[in-house]
Every structure is written in C-alpha cells, then in structure tokens.
Design brief:
This protein has 156 residues and is α/β, with parallel strands linked by helices. It is built from three helices and eight strands, in the order αβββββαβαββ.
Length: 156
C-alpha cells in the first residue's frame, strides 16, 4: 500500500574545478615578488640610528650607495669589538678605502644617474665623529658630495 520508494539513491559529488588554480598561484607569486624586499648585502655591524626631527625620504634608491658604520657583530648577534668599523659590500674596510669603492660604484652606474648618486651613511649613534669625518673626507676626494644620514623620527 505504501507508495514511498525507500531505495537509497547514490549521489555523486561533482569534481573540483581546478582550471583557475594556476592563475591563483601566479597571482600570489606575483604579489610576493612585488612586496618582498631583497637585501643586497649582509649588515655585519650593529648600529642604532640616531633620532631626528626634520627628516625626508630618498626618492630614487637605485642611485644610493650605503656605508654602514658600527661595532662589528657575529652572525649570531654577538658584539666582536667595541671599536667602530666601516662596512662596504659585505666586508670591513678602512675609511681611506671608501674612495676606491665610490669610484667603482660610479663606473657601475649609467651616465644619467652619476650626477644623482647619493651616499647614505648608516652609523651607530655612539660612533666617534672622527671615523665619520674620515669617511666624509674620503667621499669628498671621490667627488661624492651628496651625502645623507639615516635616522629615525623623533617621537615627542
């Protein structure tokens, strides 16, 4: 008498459409390529930049050469010496060797960017002024006259 059909119906789950998966993967890859900052050199000195009030940002960073001045540090973060050292391109140098480095940097640049070449000195706040003066004198002899100092904003 019953008209109900109690036999079980087997439903198949539809397959997952993976056609858009490569597009999604390349979009995520492209995103990380854009937002990731690749460091060109390893900083081997410990430095705490000083604070300042009248700060501006550099506009074209491709013409900037960085000079790090601070206490030498091991890869594990241990301070090796209390005497400040100058670092250029993953090696320690004397302040007099900065002139040769700047000549090599100038020859590497395109002719239109040479007049826009900027040197950014990233020195520890406790670095003796004598080392910074020696570096500045070497930069003057190398005709690198556009010098900036890295600092953080003084929040008062």
């Amino acid at each position: 008498m019953s008209r109900f059909n109690f036999s079980r119906q087997h439903h198949k789950v539809p397959g997952l459409n993976t056609a858009a998966l490569p597009d999604l993967i390349f979009t995520v890859l492209f995103f990380f390529m854009i937002v990731t900052h690749m460091r060109k050199q390893n900083v081997m000195v410990k430095y705490q930049v000083p604070q300042g009030t009248e700060l501006t940002r550099l506009t074209k960073k491709s013409t900037v050469s960085y000079i790090y001045i601070g206490r030498p540090e091991s890869p594990q973060g241990k301070i090796l010496s209390q005497k400040s050292r100058v670092q250029l391109n993953d090696k320690y140098v004397k302040p007099d060797e900065v002139e040769d480095y700047m000549a090599a940097e100038r020859s590497r640049m395109e002719p239109g960017d040479i007049d826009k070449m900027t040197v950014s000195i990233q020195a520890d706040r406790n670095t003796p002024m004598g080392i910074i003066t020696d570096v500045k004198q070497s930069l003057r002899r190398a005709k690198a006259l556009r010098i900036t100092y890295s600092a953080t904003e003084n929040k008062k």
